[in-house]
Write a structure and sequence with these properties.
The structure is a single chain. The protein is α/β, with parallel strands linked by helices. The chain folds into three domains: 172 residues, Aconitase, domain 3, CATH 3.30.499; 91 residues, 3-Layer(aba) Sandwich (Aconitase, Domain 2); 105 residues, Aconitase, domain 3 (2-Layer Sandwich), CATH 3.30.499. 41% of the residues lie in helices and 15% in strands. It contains 15 helices and 14 strands. It has a five-stranded parallel β-sheet with strand order 12-11-10-13-14, with helices on both faces. Strands 8-7-6-9 form a four-stranded parallel β-sheet. A three-stranded parallel β-sheet has the order 3-2-4. Helix 3 links the parallel strand 2 and strand 3. Helix 2 packs across helix 7. It is globular, with a radius of gyration of 21 Å. It binds FE3-S4 cluster.
Length: 385
């Protein structure tokens, strides 16, 4: 990959070891994926924040870095709510290490807003056609598909390196030719809310890392697209999809020859109605509309099981009355974290979720059984004996 004279100097260590390491990582990625050059990015979203996932080695690596990010950069969810980690059942030792990780990122100039839905917090991070380096899979999918921005599936170190240098290698989804759909997915049933997560759970496993093009009988909302993309990124490795009539690049490409059809019974088969000991919402982090819907469904009711709602701190701080309406039912609203990346969920045996992504990850990453149900059925379960 070609490096400019300025980039060559960084590679030789003229700006210090942190920037040298960062450009080494970018150059190595560029060489592996045959990028021609580095291109400027508008923002970075950095995964590898939870102490549960990166452990002591990750903490040490981040703590040793010295420098400042060159573009607006935001963190992925951490392993705990920074405000009420005790209420989550997080140990003092874990909390101290988690704080150290976040502070180390902050020292690099990364915003300590720990969320997988950065686009719901800041509207200057990514716009149509912007190149970005994001690393949380649902955020990547949303950036590429719903916003029309361009990012590869960055790992944590790749995204942090891109943030420090302000550039990323030009390959993959940054290029027009790789944004072409590979497989047409026709869906026969009318979908609503969590059905999109169920659809994503099914389709991701079928298409792997291909680019699906959906023909649906209903036009999904932004939140429904968020659920669809998150689930496909988890059960498969989908980083970009198009939906006829709903996503910005859907009309731009030729229709693929390969096609699959998803029938109503396949969606229904994902749902089940067993008894959970934790019911968790907010994967990806709940939007204001999703919180509003939960508040409406919980209105005048009292939950009889542990219920978590995960969202971003910005939204929790900005809408205190909405949060109170949910908490009045006994449900807990957590931010900075989620049911998957926090070790706090590991003490539960069976988690009920309305998210296709959480449904995929909970068994492996939390060690508990996962049940997927519609949002309405999750609430019905939460308030029943
Ligand atoms: Fe976000 Fe956690 Fe789900 S990071 S997408 S809420 S697994």
């Amino acid at each position: 990959m070609y490096l400019t004279p300025e980039e060559e100097k960084i590679l030789k260590g003229e700006r210090g070891a942190t920037y040298q390491k960062a450009i080494e990582i970018l150059a190595a990625l560029g060489d592996i994926y045959d990028a021609d050059r580095l291109i400027p990015i508008k923002s970075a979203q950095i995964a590898g924040v939870s102490y549960k996932t990166i452990g002591e080695a990750g903490l040490e690596w981040i703590s040793d870095l010295k420098g400042k990010v060159a573009v607006p950069s935001i963190l992925n969810p951490a392993g705990m709510d920074r405000g009420c980690w005790k209420e989550m059942g997080i140990s003092r030792d874990f909390a101290a290490k988690q704080e150290k990780i976040i502070l180390a990122y902050e020292a690099l100039g990364v915003k300590a807003e720990c969320s997988c839905t950065p686009y719901a917090i800041f509207d200057n991070l990514a716009g149509s056609g912007d190149h970005v380096a994001w690393s949380e899979s649902s955020a990547i999918s949303y950036a590429n598909s719903v916003i029309g921005a361009r990012t590869n599936r960055e790992g944590g170190p790749g995204a942090l390196s891109a943030a420090l240098i302000g550039k990323t290698p030009n390959y993959g989804f940054h290029l027009d030719e790789n944004r072409q759909p590979d497989v047409l997915v026709t869906v026969e049933s009318k979908l609503h809310d969590s059905d999109y997560g169920a659809l994503g759970y099914i389709v991701g496993a079928m298409v792997g890392d291909k680019v699906p093009f959906f023909k649906l009988r209903s036009i999904p909302s932004k939140d429904e697209l968020k659920s669809l993309g998150a689930a496909m990124a988890a059960s498969g490795a989908v980083a970009l999809y198009h939906v006829s009539g709903a996503t910005p690049e859907a009309g731009k490409y030729e229709m693929p020859v390969e096609n699959i059809t998803i029938e109503d019974w396949q969606i229904k088969e994902i749902y089940s109605k067993e008894k959970p000991d934790l019911i968790a919402f907010g994967c990806p982090h709940a939007s204001v509309d999703e919180l509003e819907n939960l508040a409406r469904l919980l209105n005048g009711k009292r939950v009889k099981k542990e219920v978590w709602v995960c969202t971003s701190r910005s939204i929790k701080d900005k809408y205190p009355l909405l949060i109170k309406r949910i908490e009045r039912s006994g449900a807990k609203v957590f931010c900075d974290t989620c049911m998957v990346v926090s070790p706090a969920s590991e003490r539960f045996k069976c988690m009920m979720v309305n998210s296709g992504k959480a449904h995929k990850y909970v068994p492996n990453l939390c060690g508990s059984k996962s049940i997927m149900a519609t949002t309405e059925d999750c609430i019905a379960e939460a308030v029943s004996d």
